Amino acid sequence: MNYPALLSFFCGFISLSLEILWVRLYGFTMMSTPAAFGFVLMAYLAGIAFGAHRGGQACRKNSSNSKLWQQAIIALLISAFLTLAMPFIFAWEHNQWWRNPLIDFIFIALVSAVLAYVFPIAHHLGAGPSSSKQGQRFALVYTSNVLGAALGPLVTGYVLLNLLTLQQTFIVIATLQLIAVSLFCWTQPRSLFRLPTAVVSLVLVITVGMASQLFDPHSLIQQVTSNGQKANQIIENKHGIITIFEPTDLQKYEPDDHAVYGGNVYDGRTNLSLVNNTNGLDRPLLLAALQPKPKRVLMVGLSIGSWLALANGFPGVEHIDVVEINAGYLQAAKTYPAQARALQDPRVNIVIDDARRWLKLHPQETYDLVIMNTTWNWRANSSFLLSQEYLQLIKKHMNKDAVMAFNATGSPDAFYTATQVFKHAYRYGNFIFAAEFDFRERKDTKQARDIYKQVTIEGKPLFSADDTLINRYLETKFIDIELVKKVSERPLEVITDKNGITEFKYGFALKRLY
Question: Would you say the C-alpha torsion 175, 178, 184, 185 has a positive or negative sign?
Answer without folding.
Answer: negative
